[in-house]
Write a structure and sequence with these properties.
Largest sheet: 6 strands, mixed
Order of helices and strands: EEEHEEEHHHEHEHEEHHEEEEEEEEEEE
Low-confidence stretches: 361-365, 372-377
Structural class: alpha+beta
Helix content: 10-25%
Bound molecules: adenosine-5'-diphosphate, magnesium ion
Distance between the termini: 30 Å
Strand content: 25-35%
Length: 377
């Protein structure tokens, strides 16, 4: 039996009339108790993937298993109501004529009255809803409605909880607060969950791992820090966060660039690569001998975003604390603040680099999914 809660293997869904499959050869596992976010732009196939897991859509190829049981593999098919899957939707879909208690207890049809009351009380406590049990949905704030939707989905103790853009109906401030609350609640209950979102901050703060979906495919699945700092492809790098690709020339094991020299980790690749620098990966110092020139700056309160012209022709973006204030036109030296960078060929990450002067083994935070990788495609 599989030790994974959810296993997708080669999952493919082609809608009639679609030019290409909405979900295309998607494979990933979710461990028991893990929260995985499916992150991607609108139309990339996130909801369809979720519906394949739930059983609202049938697979055209591949398989979906939950807790070691095959749910759909083109031959066998288990309907949604037999999959022990809970769903939370964007609009919460609460029953307006039922109280909070009625909503939370709605799915507990097979329980006795006493069991149901106990479970409702338990979840209301976990979700901070105890004092609202007699209220109706229209008497609740957006955040409270969301907690009811979560508690209702969790009440029957589903093996798996699926959440489709659950925060998009909340205003910005509440959304930020609910991310943390929802993560804490899911962790307290220990539920295995898949969260669909187009919002990268949401994916990074709520999930243990995130799967970046582009054009029906999962391009990378890993922890948020690995996806952010070591994206597997240029497409992932461009979709997640801001950054600049700075060209580097490789001679032997050394990559030379306008932001410094690095040692290439791993087998030799192409002669030319691009190093990915996130806006916080570089520091700027006023230096009349510096190689770069500040083009512009934008004030954000805590930080300035600088645009800096490098000799190689690339305009580098750099975020610096706003107590450092450098006027446009100033000559600066540019120093890479990260020990490790990811290096790319035309499509994908081909190597990691280590700042010259650091032992190549430095950077113990990396998982095996990154170390030793030479190409992902
Ligand atoms: P996302 O949730 O990432 O925005 P979806 O999974 O909803 O994307 O949709 C992926 C693609 O599949 C889109 O091109 C969408 O138009 C198409 N699609 C989704 N559902 C259907 C359907 N029932 N019939 C035909 N095409 C669909
Ligand atoms: Mg969707």
């Amino acid at each position: 039996m599989s030790t994974q809660s959810i296993v997708l293997s080669g999952a493919t869904k082609q809608f009639a009339g679609g030019a290409s499959p909405a979900v295309w050869d998607v494979s990933f596992d979710v461990e028991p108790g893990e929260i995985v976010a499916l992150l991607g732009p609108s139309g990339c196939g996130k909801t369809t993937t979720l519906r394949l897991i739930a059983g609202f859509e049938r697979l055209d190829a591949g398989s979906v298993s939950i807790n070691g049981r095959v749910m759909d593999d083109g031959r066998g098919y288990v309907p949604p109501e037999k999959r022990s899957v809970g769903m939370v939707f964007q609009d919460f879909a609460l029953f307006p004529h039922l109280t909070v208690a009625g909503n939370i207890g709605f799915g507990l049809i097979r329980s006795s009255k006493r069991e149901r009351e106990e479970r409702v009380r338990e979840l209301a406590e976990l979700a901070g809803l105890t004092e609202f049990l007699d209220r109706y949905p229209h008497q609740l704030s957006g955040g409270q409605q969301q907690r009811v939707a979560l508690a209702r989905a969790l009440a029957p103790k589903p093996d798996v909880l699926l959440l489709d853009e659950p925060f998009s109906n909340l205003d910005t401030e509440l959304r930020v607060q609910m991310r943390t609350e929802v993560r804490e609640l899911l962790k307290a209950v220990g539920t295995t969950a898949v969260l669909v979102t187009h919002d990268q901050q949401e994916a990074m703060t709520v999930a243990d791992r995130m799967a970046v979906m582009l054009g029906g495919r999962v391009e990378q699945i890993d922890t948020p820090d690995v996806v952010y700092h070591y994206p597997a492809t240029r497409a992932v790098a461009s979709f997640v966060g801001l950054g600049t690709f700075v060209p580097a020339r490789i001679a032997g094991a050394v990559a030379s660039s306008d932001v410094g020299q690095f040692t290439i980790d791993g087998p030799p690749g192409p002669d030319n690569v691009d190093l990915l620098l996130r806006p916080r990966d570089v520091t700027l110092t006023v230096d009349p001998e510096g190689i770069a020139v500040v083009q512009s700056r934008i004030f954000h309160g805590a930080e300035f975003t600088y645009r800096v012209q490098l000799p190689c022709g690339v305009t580098l973006q750099s975020n610096q604390p706003s107590h450092i204030d450098i006027s446009p036109g100033t000559r600066v030296s540019v120093r890479c603040a990260r020990v490790r960078l990811a290096a790319y060929d035309a499509d994908a990450r081909v190597a990691l680099t280590t700042a010259a002067g650091f032992p190549t083994a430095f950077g113990g935070e990396l998982t095996s999914s990154v170390v030793g990788v030479t190409a992902t495609s």
